[in-house]
From TrEMBL:
Signal peptide: none annotated. The keyword Hydrolase applies. This is Phosphodiester glycosidase family protein. Residues 178-357 form the Phosphodiester glycosidase domain. The lineage of its organism: Bacteria, Bacillati, Bacillota, Bacilli, Bacillales. It comes from Paenibacillus sambharensis. GO terms for molecular function: hydrolase activity, acting on glycosyl bonds.
């Protein structure tokens, strides 16, 4: 019997037709055939593989670590907030302490400023605070310069043209050094066509011409390395060395010590009686006060007496005060201009000048 491939295919198609029809129906209807429970029996946790227990333990440790990390983060956040709060409180305490510490100084400054009146001009910088006042007394007019030094760059004393034996006006020194203010300093002595500083003179912490013991009414006055006024009579160099002078000059006489008027030598009471004057003084808080008074000449008929200057200084409440070179030497420069009226009719060339810098 001859079997044809075509007949075999027909038989196979007829045999499988019911199954193919069922499969197509199931596919179109969306029905899903799931295996029974017997095919996949439930797992016994006690019979889990060892790797399953390790995975659970690792997961538990991970969860614990995560919880600890969250707790630590919250703790750090609270500590940071507490630190910020504490830091702010400490800053407030420090600032308040600083304010309270400065308060007595402000009160003291207000008291001494009231006695001077209202400043006509002021300069306030990181280096200093300088206030200029106009003074009108019964027999003379004058000017007061109150200075609070903040740094060691605020003030210096210079030789005339920076050379021992040379001289220059206060205004010339101010311009040459580009300072904003200047006051004449110590006395001088002329010789051989030169003008030398009188007695002990210190510039840039160096003795110019050597140390000279104080004789008669001469004194030394200047500032030390702490920007405090020092002055008096020194018979030995080591006495002055102990005070570490930064700069200073010499003249006569001493006017005030510890707020008390000093006896004025008879010679200086009448020679001259009245004259233009320049004085350097200090307050208890180490502020400086410079007084410069006007006079028509050195004949003794105009200007201030030293006793009148003492009364004025005591009224202003200064601690120590020293008379500097006066007469035609008295010069006060502020903001680049000469404030007073030099009695020579022009500025005198001087051996030393105090300068102030913004």
């Amino acid at each position: 019997m001859k079997i044809r491939i075509k007949d075999v295919n027909r038989v196979f198609l007829l045999a499988t037709a019911p199954f193919l029809g069922a499969a197509i129906w199931l596919l179109l209807s969306g029905m899903t055939i799931m295996p029974g429970d017997a095919a996949y029996p439930p797992l016994d946790e006690n019979k889990l593989p060892e790797t399953g227990h390790q995975a659970d333990a690792a997961l538990q440790k991970l969860e614990q670590a995560n919880a600890l990390a969250i707790q630590t983060a919250e703790s750090i956040k609270k500590d940071a907030e507490l630190y910020s709060k504490t830091n702010a409180e400490m800053k407030a305490i420090v600032n308040n302490t600083a304010v309270q510490k400065e308060r007595p100084l402000h009160i003291y400054d207000r008291r001494i400023t009231i006695k001077l009146g209202s400043p006509s001009e002021s300069v306030q910088t990181d280096n200093l605070r300088a206030q200029l006042y106009y003074i009108k007394a019964q027999h003379f007019v004058g000017y007061a310069l109150k200075v609070k030094l903040k740094t060691d760059k605020a003030m210096s004393m210079v030789l005339g043209e920076d050379e021992f034996g040379r001289s220059e006006t206060t205004l010339a020194a101010v311009k040459r050094y580009k300072a904003f203010a200047g006051v004449n300093a110590g006395g001088y002595a002329d010789g051989n066509g030169k003008r030398y500083p009188l007695s002990t003179t210190v510039v840039d912490s160096e003795y110019v011409g050597g140390f000279q013991p104080s004789v008669k009414d001469l004194f030394f006055v200047g500032l030390n390395e702490d920007l405090k006024l020092i002055g008096g009579k020194y018979s030995r160099k080591d006495q002055l060395d102990k005070q570490k002078p930064k700069f200073g000059a010499s003249f006569v006489p001493i006017l005030m010590k510890d707020g008390r008027k000093q006896a004025i030598p008879a010679k200086w009471k009448t020679s001259p009686l009245r004259a233009p004057r320049t004085v350097i003084a200090n307050y208890k808080d180490d502020q400086l006060l410079f007084l410069v008074t006007d006079g028509y000449n050195e004949g003794g008929r105009s200007g201030a007496t030293l006793e009148e200057i003492q009364i004025l200084l005591q009224r202003f409440g200064v601690k120590d005060a020293y008379n500097l070179d006066g007469g035609g030497s008295s010069t006060l420069v502020f903001n680049g201009r000469v404030v007073n009226k030099p009695s020579d009719g022009q500025m005198r060339r001087l051996a030393t000048n105090f300068l102030f810098f913004k």
